[in-house]
Each structure stands twice: as structure tokens, then as C-alpha cells.
Amino acid sequence: QVQLVESGGGLVQTGGSLGLSCAASGSILAIFAMGWFRQAPGKQREFVAHITSDGTTNYADSVKGRFTISRGNAKNMMYLQMNSLKPEDTAVYYCNAVIATTRRENINYWGQGTQVTVSS
């Protein structure tokens, strides 16, 4: 059993910053990649950023230069620093991880999401 829990969402004005955290727990053997997706009401869930076990990062063009993804010293932790926020960033942000457990390998897991609202 693996759980991903997000935290750090909230309400911020345009141009402000928020930091999101994701913690993975359970019978984890390895985490191959972790990332963030977001979904606005009535919209498809979209990719935001991800980071692999070797530290390689990737960002959606819409957030490049504004958001920074990182892994904690404890490798079950992941962070997303969001700067220069825009109303278009308003969405539920979901933590995603590709994880091998004691029972299964390379499975995608999702958190419950945390709301980020950017006021105009």
C-alpha cells in the first residue's frame, strides 16, 4: 500500500508564490520518478513537472522559468516551488509517483490533490 499526500496549497494573489510538498509512504522499494499534474474545473488533467531518480527535471512550457521541482534529502519527499503565479495556474495540483513496492513494480500512484487558487 502506497500513499501520496500533498500539502501547501492555498490562495495567493497574482505574482505571488506557493510551495507544495508531497510525501510518499508505504512498502516502497524504489521511487523512479515523481511529478506534479494539475486539473482546473472542466479541464483535462495536465502535466506540470517531474523529476527522475537521477535528478533530471522536466517542465511544461507554461510553467518553465516560474516553477521549480525538487526532491528532498529523504527521497520520499518532493517539492514544487511556484513563483510568479498567474490566475491560469489555478487548479487542483496532484502529486504523482512511479513506485516499485514489495508486491508490484513501476506503478503510477496519485495523491488526493491540493487546491491552488490565484486571484486576479
Beta-strand portion reads: over 45%
Helix content: under 10%
Tell me the structural class.
mainly beta
Order of helices and strands: EEEEEEEEEEE
Alpha-carbon Rg, integer: 14 Å
Low-confidence stretches: none
Number of strands: 11
Q: What profile does the largest beta sheet have?
A: 7 strands, mixed
Polypeptide structure, described:
Helices cover 0% and strands 61% of the residues. It has strands spanning 2-7, 10-13, 18-26, 28-39, 46-52, 57-59, 67-71, 77-82, 91-101, 107-110, 114-119. Strands 2, 4, 5, 6, 9, 10 and 11 form a seven-stranded mixed sheet that branches. The protein has a four-stranded antiparallel sheet with strand order 1-3-8-7, with no helix packed on it. The chain is an all-beta fold. The chain contains no helices and eleven strands.
Give a topology summary.
Elements: E1 2-7, E2 10-13, E3 18-26, E4 28-39, E5 46-52, E6 57-59, E7 67-71, E8 77-82, E9 91-101, E10 107-110, E11 114-119
Parallel strand pairs: 2-11
Antiparallel strand pairs: 1-3, 3-8, 4-5, 4-9, 5-6, 7-8, 9-10, 9-11
Which features would summarize this protein structure in a list?
single chain, about 120 residues, mainly beta, 7-stranded mixed beta sheet, 4-stranded antiparallel beta sheet
Short recap of the structure:
This protein is an all-beta fold. It has strands spanning 2-7, 10-13, 18-26, 28-39, 46-52, 57-59, 67-71, 77-82, 91-101, 107-110, 114-119.
